[in-house]
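dumping this here before i forget
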Amino acid sequence: MRFRPCIDIHDGKVKQIVGGSLKDTVGADTNYVSEHGAAYFGRLYRNCNVPGGHIILLNKAGTKEYLEDIREASDAMKEYPGGFMIGGGITVENALEFIELGASHVIVTSYVFRDGIIDYDRLNALIEKVGKDRLVLDLSCRKKASEDGNGSQDYYIVTDRWQNYTDVKVCHETLDELSGYADEFLIHGVDVEGKKSGVDKNLLQILGSWEGSVPITYAGGVSSFDDMDTVRELGRDRIDVTIGSALSIFGGDMDFNEVIDYREGKNEV
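structure:
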């Protein structure tokens, strides 16, 4: 299990938000707004040697706020070339531009999961543009009542900054189906994202029991080293983890340096 750093950018500022609260019309519930720009965090992660981080642009593409997000992201990638993947508003038209700005991968959800289903034409076009080895599929999901009507709940991929459900279930069959189209999967448990209330154990059990070879990074609800242990256990030490609001650098209680030590096996918690 590796720790993957993150930089979430909203309205041109590094923020931590409650993921399920994000709305285009009224903004989002905010946990933390950093006094530092994204470049600061790019330097920090480079100096700590934690590659494979995620920059997420949280504003709607085409707005002036989205352009401000891109400017901040560019500053971070200049500080750590190749150290970040980037997502938010990625399309076949702009994907290569983000690679040229210094991103190692582009992260895609809404462009591919369109009208509730997987648009394979768009997915194949992205692969042709940037290559499978530079594509991360974001399968972030929320719980919804099962279609069989038995009262259970399943996890469905959500799009448009986590506001809209698709008909695509996060399950082993879906992971198998998509594993030939991506270098990695990024999966936020949106129901617990930004709440610092503990991880989504049911989702982690689904991900940890999958036998595929595509790397998975889990995000959502990590608030303690006990949660880190849970991710390691349920993920069978194969699922990477990213932490946002709970980190000390984002106003949380988990000391950033201790998280780095945990990654390196120095933390016995």
